[in-house]
Design goal:
The protein is mainly alpha-helical and 242 residues long. Helices cover 51% and strands 3% of the residues. The strands form 2 sheets. Strands 1-2 form a two-stranded antiparallel sheet. It is extended.
Amino acid sequence: GEVRPPKTHLFNLNHPYLHLANLSGKMAAISSSFTVARPIKTVSKAKVAARSSFLGSGINGLGVSAKFQRATPAARLAVRADADDGQVVTPMNGDPFIGMLETPVTSAPIVTGFLSRLPAYRTAESPLSRGVEIGLTHGFFVTGPFIKLGPLRASEFADAAGCLSAAGLVVILTTCLTIYGASTFESDETAMGTRTLTGRQVSPDPLQTADGWSNFTAGWLVGGLGGVAWAYLLTQTLPYYS
C-alpha cells in the first residue's frame, strides 16, 4: 500500500550540472568569483630618487640587473676578446699547462737576450767551461765583502784573511754542488730529447746529467779558486789597495 517514488540513478548524465558545457561554465564562474582586483600602487619619481640616494645605487637590487642577464655567445666572445687584449701576464705560449708565465719583464727582448747569454743557458758549451766561467766571477767578487767587512778589516792582514775566507766559501759551495748532483742525478738514465712543432730534434742540455754536473762542479772549484787568487794579486799590486 505504500507508494514509493521511482528509483533514479545516482549520477544522472542528463543533469544540467554534470553536462560538459555547463560544467566548464560553472568552473569559470567559480574561479572568477574568487578573483580580487588589486589596485596598482604608483610611486612618484621623487620617492624613488629619495630611496635611491638613501640605499645606494637604487631599490632595484633584488631584480635581475642588465649586466647579470644571460649574454649571447657573441657578446661573451667579444667580452673575452677585450679582456685578453688587456692582459699583461699570460701563460707562456698561450698554454696554461706549461706552468710558466709571460710578463713584460721576463718576456722582454732585452731580458731574454741577456739570460740566453749567461753561461748556465749556453748549452752549446761544455759544462766544464761553463763551471770555470761562473767560478771565476763568483770567486773574484766574493772576496770584497770578506776584506772590507771581515773581523780583521782594520789590520794589516785584512787582504789575506779575506781571500782565505773567500776560498773557504768556494770549497763549501763545491761540496754543496757535489751533494746536489749526487742526489739529483743518481740514476744513469739518459735525458730524453724534445722536438719542436716542425719535428726538429732538440738535444738535451749536457749539464743536466751526472757526468755533466760533475764536470761543472770541477770547473766551479778551479774557477772559484782562480778568481780568489786573481783578486788577491790585484789587492797586492794595484795602488788603490796599497
